[in-house]
TrEMBL record:
InterPro entries: MFS (IPR011701), MFS_dom (IPR020846), MFS_trans_sf (IPR036259), Tet-R_TetA/multi-R_MdtG-like (IPR001958). It is a multi-pass membrane protein. The keyword Membrane applies. Keywords: Membrane, Transmembrane, Transmembrane helix, Transport. One of its GO terms (molecular function) is transmembrane transporter activity. Its main location: membrane. This is MFS general substrate transporter.
Amino acid sequence: MSTSSKSSVRSVSDYGTIAQYDTDSDKSSDISPHGNDYDGPSAGEVPYDRARRRSFIEEDEDPLQIDVPAKKPKPVTWSSLPHKGQLAILTAARLAEPLVQTSLRSYLFYQLKSFDKSLPDSVIASQAGIMQSSFAAAQLCTAMLWGRASDHGGRKRVLLIGLSGTMISCLGFGFSTTFWQALIFRMLGGALNGNVGVMRTMVSEIVREKKFQSRAFLILPMCANIGVIIGPMMGGLTSDPAGNYPSLFGGIKWLKKYPYSPPNVISAGFLFCAACFIFFGLEETHERYAQEHDRGVHFRRKLTGSLRRIFGGEKPGYQSCDSVPDSHDGSVTEYEPPKPKKYVAPRYKNKLPFRRIFTYNVICTLICHALMAGSMGTFNNVWYSFLSTPVFDPAKAPPDYTPHPPFTFTGGIGLPPRSVGFAMAILGSIGISMQLFIYPLVNDRLGTVRSWRIFLYCFPFVYILAPMLSLIPSTTPPPSQKTGWPIWISITGLLFIQVVGKTFASPATSILINNCSPHPSVLGTIHGIGQTASSAARTVGPALGGFLYGLGLRNGVVAAVFWGLAIVASFSCVASNWVREGNGHEIRLEGDDEAEAEAEAENRPLLRP
C-alpha cells in the first residue's frame, strides 16, 4: 500500500462524533465547512444555524427512554395465598386444640361438682380457675424450651409431641374421678404442648411475603373461633349422656361412672387425626432441616403412587413413570418425584445470642401481649362460671344481705351445659364471619398497629358490662335459669363487642410478635417466649380471677372481678402506644448480607416467566 493510501485510511475514532466535528470546525474559522471556494449562502438559502443543529444532534444522541407503566399489583385474596395445602394441614392441627379447650369449659363447672357434690358454688368456681391455670402454668415452664427445641431440631417434631401429649392428657382428664387426678392430667397436657408458638413460626416461614401476613396469621385465630362454635356444642351435647339421655345410655355402666368422658374421647380422636395429618402431610419449614429425609411424607408419596397405579387402570406389565429399574440388579424401585421448587430462605450462619433477644420493642410487645392474654384468659374462665352460676334467689339470701345495684349484687345466669354451648357458638359464628370478610379489609386500610390499638378498647367496655347480665329480668322466677329474649339479646350484643375486639387484636398480636423478632435465627425462640409470656398471664389470671369471683359470690359483689379485668385491659390499651411493628431483622450479624445474596441468587430463576 502506498503512502498516500495509508494516509487516507483513518480509524473510526479519528472522526469523532458529529458534535465534536462541529466544535472542531468552530475553532477553524479560516476554513469554510463547504470548502475553500464557498463564500456564503446564496440568495434564498437559509443561513446555517449551528446552535440549532447541535440541539438536533443532542436530541438524536440521547438514549431511548420509554416510560413503561408499572403493573398494578394484584389484590390479595384468600385464593392468592401461597402454599394453601400446607396451611390447610396446619389449620386442621390448630383446630383440634381449641376443640379440646372450648368443649371442656362448657361442662367443667359440672364435672368439678360431680367430684364432690357437697362443695358450695364459690369453691367450685375457685377450682375451675385453678384447673384452667394449671394448663397455662405448665406451658409457662416449657413453652420457651419447645421454641428453642424447634429452632434446634425442627418444627414438625415438636408439633407431633405436643399433639400426642394433649391427646393423652385429654383421655386421662375424661376418666378422672377426683379433682387432683384431673389437675395432674391438665398439667401434663400443658407441659407437653408448645404448639401455638411453633405454628405461628411455621406460618411465617410458609408465607414469607408481608402482603399476605394479614390473612395468613388470621388462620390460627380463625381456628379458635371455629373451635368456639363446635367445641361447646359438642361438650354440652355429649357430656353426661346417661343423665341427659337415659332412654339411650341409661344402662351403660361406664358412662355412669365416667359421665364426662365422651367429649374427651371425641377430642382425643380429633387430636389423633391432626397428628396423622402432620406426620404424613406437613413438610418441615426450618431451612436447616427441610432437606432431610421425612419418613411420613415419603410414605405418603409411596402410598399415593401405589393407589394411583391400582385405581388408575394401568395394564399388567406396564411400567409406570413412578417406577424405574435399579441400575445394579435390574429390580424396579419406586421413583419419588422431586419436590417442587420453593423460594429459599437465607441460611444465616451466625445465630443471635439469647442475651441480645430482648430489645426495647420485644419487651414492649411482650408486655402488651401478656396483659391482653391474661385479661382474655381470665374473662373466658370467669365468664363460663358466671353463665353456669345459679341465679340469685332472694328467698335464700342471708338475712343481712340486701342488693344495691349497680355496685352490690350477686348471682349468675344459671345456664345448663347445652345452653352454655349455644351461647358460645354465637360468639364463634360472629367471629368467623368477621375474620373472613371484614378483618382483612380493615387491616389493609388502617395497618396492623393502628387497627390493633383501636380495637383493644373493646375489652374494657365488655368487662364493665358483663356482670350486669345478672340484673336483666327473666321470664322465669329464680332459682330457674334466666330465659326470654332480653337476656339472649344482651348476651349476643355483649359477645359481639367482645368478638370484634378479639377478631382484630389476636391476629395483629401474632403479626407484631413475629415481626418484632430481632433476627431470623431466633424466630422460633421469640414465639416460644411470646407463648411463655401468655402462659404466665394465663396462669396467674384465671387462678386469681376464679378466687376473686368466688369471693365476690360470698360477699355479694359479683362484679368486682370483671371491673378489675377492665382496669388490666385499660393498661394494655395504654401500653400499646409504645409498640411498633418491626421488620423481623432489627439486628444484623456478620455474614447476613452474604446469606441473603446467596438466597436471592437461588430464587432468581423462580422469578423468571
